[in-house]
Amino acid sequence: MAAPALNRRAGSVNSIGSSPTATPNSSINNNRVITCYPELDFRSGTRIEELNRLIQEFSKHDQREYDDQRALEIHTAKDFIFSMLGMVQKLDQKLPVANEYLLLSGGVREGVVDMDLDELSPCSRGTDYDMDFTLLVPALKLHDRNQPVTLDMRHSALGHSWLSLRLFDEGTIGRWKDCCTLADHVNGATNYFFSPTLVADWFYESVAVVLAEVQRKPQRGMPRVERAERNGTVVSIVLGVGSSRMLYDVVPVVSFKGWPAVAQSWLMENHFWDGKITEEEVISGFYLVPASSPSGRPENEWRLSFARSEVQLKKCISPGLMQAYQACKAIIVRLLAKPKAVSPYQLRSLMLWACDRLPTSYLAQEDYSAHFLLGLIEDLQHCLVNKNCPNYFIPQCNMLEHLTDEMAMHHARKLASARADPAEHLRLAIEHTKAANRLTLELQRRGSTSGLPSPQSELGAGDQHQSDDRLAKKLQQLVTENPGKSISVFINPDDVTRPHFRIDDKFF
Question: What span, in angstroms and rounded, lies between the C-alpha atoms of 101 and 78?
């Protein structure tokens, strides 16, 4: 069988001798000429140095810096969302009075939680928003349970669970029974199962009522609600503040303290984070998110989410690997967009498995981003060919089990094209990111020339203006010191003027 043809371009194996950018270095040792070639990727013939440069360029365009004005706009949008949720709680007292939210950088489409992407409407950075976040809002909390937490998995696929309200008091059952499906218990009593689809129905309707009321009586400095829609069990809200547009994917969840029994064996293994963070930080809690398995009952089945633990594990991942992951994610989001059989969350799981598998000293190498990128592509391709991608926290749960053989091979072939020419796919990702940034800048320019109000211009002057300046500087410092980190927020809806938010382990 003939070897596959490689592109003949500068930097490829077939042009090393003639390309000025890939000229080998020669030296004489004991009358023998030793030729030292640049380090190459065997499969594509691309110089590793070039791939590293492209990854750095992608990171530069993908990670934007925020000035004081943008930091204040982010803060204004965040406060609006939290105030809105306080009003939702007051509608019918269903949400916990003092709730603890988890705010994650990146929307659901970015794979920050394991949700079903095929239920989400098209929405892209630059065209529809400038920044995106995911907010997990506990509808119920089980925070006084002893470890481990045992869930009812008798009727669901692995990694999923039903939730009976028999675990809660009569007051909770009374508030939520209209969001439950009914089943007869063995003792003859009625068993209420908390329904993710009915909860999502209630949550979207409540948010819509609050937003309509807020927009009917707009207040000075209030963000513009440019988009509010339901995407499956997710409520997506795009807010305009000044010249910024922020997407919030808001997800109703069930929050647990402790650790699920189904993931107990995972704690017995050695992990890359051992000795870097404590086990108490990693197993502080988990969630049930409203997502069912392909063969499950959507009205009853919740999916286990370890988003709180992932926030902690992220602190132990080297910058070079994280840059490679972000670049690889940009490639697969574009390449495997249709049909949406592969999620960026699955790539995140592969990155965590790689951290367990490979030496920390290797992953800490600053100039190995290209190797990490190529390895992640190969790992995902291997998973598709074998139709097996184990969940990091529940390894016995295969996240690709539902794929048909044809679908798995279709995506594996697409990844093969990326692996054969990673530099070209990186260039496309860079151009896509640059185009999104240009759209954002153009809309900001139009906003500034058309006189769109900004929070600073509408909130007043004098002492209030000085207070905003101090707030903007503080927020800018937080953004600069904590790039890409996730934020946990504790809110009392009876006093929405005082949000208490945490960036990893720092409180503000």
Answer: 12
Q: Rounded to whole angstroms, what are the CA distances from 226 to 129, 185, 240, 248?
A: 10, 46, 6, 12
0.85 exceeded by pTM: no
401 DSSP 8-state letter:
T
Instruction: Estimate the crossing angle of helix 48-62 against helix 319-335, to 10 degrees.
Output: 80
Which two three-digit tokens encode residue 157? Answer: 């696929």
pLDDT at 499 > cutoff 70: no
Beta strand pairing call for 25-29 and 285-289: unpaired
CB-CB contact of 19 with 11 (8 Å): yes
**Could you tell me the pLDDT band of residue 475, with boundaries at 50, 70 and 90?**
low
**Under the phi-then-psi rule, with left for phi > 0, alpha for psi from -120 to 50, and beta for the rest, what region is 30?**
left
Contacts of 160 (CB under 8 A, 6+ apart): 153, 292, 293, 296, 301, 302, 303, 304
pLDDT digits (tens, 9 = 90+) for 166-216: 878 888 899 999 999 987 655 556 789 999 999 999 999 999 999 999 988
Please, are residues 87 and 97 in contact by the beta-carbon 8 Å criterion? no
Q: How does DSSP assign 429-488, residue by residue?
A: HHHHHHHHHHHHHHHHHHHHHTT---HHHHS-STHHHHHHHHHHHHHHHHHHHSTT--EE
Per-residue three-class SS string for 152-216: ECCCCCCCEEECEHHHCCHHHHHHHHHHEEEEECCCCCEEEEECHHHHHHHHHHHHHHHHHHHHH
Cα–Cα separations (whole angstroms), residue 459 to 52, 70, 71, 418? 45, 15, 15, 50
CA distance 207 to 229: 10
The C-alpha angle with vertex 324 and arms to 323 and 330, in degrees rounded to 5, equals 95
Q: Are 351 and 316 in contact (CB under 8 A)?
A: no
Phi first, then psi, for residue 249 (nearest 5°) are: -90, 110
**pLDDT by residue (tens digit) across 79-97?**
999 999 999 999 999 999 8
d(CA 366, CA 420): 24
Find out whether 43 and 420 touch, Cβ atoms under 8 Å. yes
* Backbone φ/ψ region at 95: left (φ over 0), alpha (ψ -120 to 50), beta: beta
Residue 69's H or E segment, with its range, is helix 68-92
Overall size of the chain counted in residues? 508
Number of Cβ atoms within 10 Å of the Cβ of 389: 25
Q: Which pLDDT does position 69 carry in this prediction?
A: 79
Positive or negative, the CA dihedral 323, 326, 327, 329 is: positive
Q: What is the pLDDT of residues 47-77, one digit of tens each?
A: 999 999 999 999 999 986 666 778 888 899 9
What pLDDT, on the 0 to 100 scale, is given for residue 120?
Answer: 83
